[in-house]
Structure formats: C-alpha cells, structure tokens
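User: I'll paste a sequence; please echo it back and then give the predicted structure.

Assistant: Echoing your sequence first, then the prediction.
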Amino acid sequence: MSKRILVVGAGFAGMWSALSAARLIDQHGSTDIEVALIAPEPHLHVRPRLYEENAAGMKAPLLDIFASTGVRFIQGTVERIDVDRNQAHVIAADGSRSTLNYDRLVLATGSRLFRPQIPGLAEHTFSVDQVDEAAALEAHIAQLASLPETSARNTVVVAGGGFTGIETAAEMPARLRAALGEDAKARVMIVERDREIGPDLGAGPRPVITQALEALGVEWRLGAAVTSVDANGITTSDGERIEARTVIWTAGVRASALTAQIPAERDALGRLHVDRNLRVLGVDTVYATGDVAYAATDEEGNHALMSCQHAMNLGRSAGHNVAADLLGAQPIPYSQPKYVTCLDLGPWGAVYTEGWEREVKMSGAQAKALKTRINTEWIYPPSAARAEAFAAADPLRIVVA
C-alpha cells in the first residue's frame, strides 16, 4: 500500500520541502511514497519583494517543476488537521470539501501580518504582506494624483520601523514623486513604538540605515505607537496627529493559524517547537518548517527567523527528513549557523551584515547589487529540469540569501 507525504503550503518552505522529499525518494528508487503539495494556487509568491513596484507580478509558476519531479499538486486550502486520524480536511477552489489522508504531514503555511485591534486599522491601512495587498497599495499610489493637492495626499506613513518597514519607506519617496510629479512635496514618515529605528536589526547597521533614510528624506517618529487610523491619517500614543492618505502597516507577523490545530507547544508568535529534524515535539507524524517552526539554527541558542533566508533551508531539511522517516533512511539535522542580512535602502543602496551581531560588511551601491541578485535570482525556484531541481533541493546545499 502506498504512503503519502502531504506538504501544506507552496511558499519557500513548502516548495523546497516537496522537492527535497521527492529527491530522497527518487534516490532510494521508491515507488510507493507519494509527495503531494496542497496550496490555493501553484505559484510561489515572492513575498520578500512586495515592497517593490509591480507587486502583482511577484509570482513564480510551480506546475512544471512539480511535474518534472513527481510532486502531485492539489489546489485547495486546508481548513482543519486531525492529527489523531492523520487527515487534512480540504476546501477546493470550487468550494467543495474533501478529506486527505497522510502518513506524514509537513506544515509549511507560513505567516501573516499581525493586525491588532486598533480603531480604523482594518479599514484604512495598506500592507505589503501579500501579493494582492501590495498590488492594492500600488494602485492607490497611482491614483493619488487625481486627488486635490493637500499635505495628507502627499504623505505616506509607514507604521513599523523593522526590516519590512524600512525597506518599504525607502522606496516611497521615489514612488510618490513618480505618481505626483517630481516637484511634489512628498513626505514619508516611519512611526515606530521602540526608541530605536530598526530595533530587531540591532545597533550594527543602524548608522547606515539612518544615513540612508536621511539622504532619501524619510522622517521617523520613535517611542510612539499608532493608536487610531482614519481615512485622512493617524493619531499616535503621545497625542500627535499626522495627516496622511496613505498608511502602510508593517508591524509584526504571526505564524499561520493552522498551528493552533496541532496539539503541541508554540512560542509567542505561534510557531511550533520542533526537534533538530523539524519534527513537531510530541507529534510523531507532523513536521513543521519555515515560519511555522520554532527551530534552533545552531548550538549557540539562536533560532530561525521568519525570513526567506531561513525558510528555504528549513524546507530542504524538513522535506529530506520526512522522507527519510518513511524510508528508514538517515535524517540530516537542520543546521544553519551562518546568518546574514541584506536590507534594501531604496535608491540610496543597501546594507549587508554578517553574524547575529550584524556586523556591517558592505553598504551603498555594492550592497545594492548583492540585494538585486538575491531578489531576482537566488530566491526564485530552480529550473524545471529534474536533475537541476533535485540538485538544488539538497539539504546540505545551504543557501544564504
């Protein structure tokens, strides 16, 4: 009787999990283990690029890669996981419901932007979290010129001064001028509740970040949180009113809500605790990877971040290990001790750091060239050629991007 590995999610972690599992099964010559991947559509959404223009095109097709590597694609959404019966309850694209049995499950459903219950936030903010949301922001900016000229029309507020907030804000002055005219008095402001810009990025790259933002004309307000949003602006926790027709929310993400259906320990972000092989602690038939996994990267106490950099390698490891579990083969414990960041700073350039202390190694145009390669080459799916796809899915091929 054949066995099934079910991968839930077609993001970076899900795609690489499926390919890596298929690779090991192929190497063992097994014909009785199916690798199936379920997702709403057969595309990789290139989420790390959604702060850029042309967001609607930030997708990469996956059907040819899956076909060449023997991965079965199932179009649909998992609404419920029954770990006692090893079943996933699915809603298909046409609304019909069905049940999928599995022998092993790889949960790779990623994360979503966290939107707290702030008055007006849901109705009056934009985001760059998903393709459709980033495309809606782009369409909104394009039509600003049709509105009467006011300070609110010419102002963009980016709520959140973390990685995504900084990259988004750095793009906005040029995008506003392109929409409103080069002579427009465009204003871009970051509002960050922490006392420092880029609090999660640490002190290392901060001088470069502030230099770039100042050169781009981006302002920031620190130590103040957004307490309400309306169609014409925001109010902060210290009582300041900022008039803006464009408010972009970037403040934090949470793991997929499906993690709550796995009876296991989760961290404050909803990520499932996993062992070094990425098996969920206490649930032998379920592996977690990417943004839904709280996974140690090394022996020094560091854990993977919710980032493309970690998701790609977490996916390769999860796929190999879930297949090894069914094949009786040797697992390869997940390890990713090298950590880098490459932060896009818009027309000014970028900043590249290495290590968890984020020591700056490169900045300006040189770092921008590296960031461009990462965004346009390294994070995209491999060739659909079977041998090349399998080679790229090797869990020992650690990619730093």
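The mean pLDDT is 96. The two ends are 40 Å apart (CA to CA).
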